[in-house]
Amino acid sequence: MRAVNLLPKDDRRQRGAEARRQNPVLIGGVSGAVLVTAILCAWFLTASGGVANNQKRRDAAQAELAATPVPAPTSSDSSALEQEKGARVAALSGALGTRLAWDRVLREFALVLPDDVWLTSLSAQSPSAGGGTAGFSIIGRTYSQDGVARLLARLALVPHLTNVTLQSSASTVSETGRKVVEFTINATLKGVGA
């Protein structure tokens, strides 16, 4: 006997559709690939449009830069500036050469002043621009000659003072009736311009 197919031809087509319905993973994978491809294409088109805009702006900026004239350097201006700079440096050097840091000198003096010594007068003279010496003179009082000797020894340690000498020292009675020693000390300031 011979085999005869009694099934209609439409049955095979229905089986293929059923097979496709039965494989959702395959359908999801294909549709996901199509979606990713569409997103990448849209991103590429957007990015290429932005690149084109940036290139147009760059070209416009380069054209504007090329159109800007370059100023020619003038040698007379630079030589005048060099001369002015040299004059200013010379003036500053001259001013700093005779400068004396009075705050430092007075701070050093205050640090070595003994507790039992008080000043009635202090005079200091800055050096002149012609190279004169700077003087430092103090008049004060203490309770004994030992206090005067202690002040002289301490003043000799001050780095900015040199030639510290006792001009005069005499015993006297103060306004309160107490016996005190009145003294005058002279010194020369050194380190001018340092």
Descriptive keywords:
single chain; 194 residues; alpha+beta; 4-stranded antiparallel β-sheet; 5 helices; elongated
| Relative strand content | 15-25%
Low-confidence stretches: none
Helix content: 40-55%
What characteristic shape results from the CA principal axes?
Answer: elongated
What is the alpha-carbon Rg in Å?
50 Å
- Total strands: 4
Strand order of the largest sheet: 1-2-4-3
How would you characterize the largest beta sheet?
4 strands, antiparallel
Class from secondary-structure proportions: alpha+beta
Question: What is the rounded distance between the termini?
Answer: 131 Å
* Number of H/I helices: 5
Whole-number mean pLDDT: 82
The SSE order reads HHHHEEHEE
Structure, described:
The protein is of the alpha+beta class. The chain is 53% helix and 21% strand. It contains five helices and four strands. It has helices at residues 10-22, 24-67, 75-97, 102-112, 145-155; strands at residues 117-124, 134-142, 161-173, 179-189. The chain has a four-stranded antiparallel sheet. It is elongated and about 160 Å long. The relative contact order is 0.09. The model has no long low-confidence stretch (mean pLDDT 82).
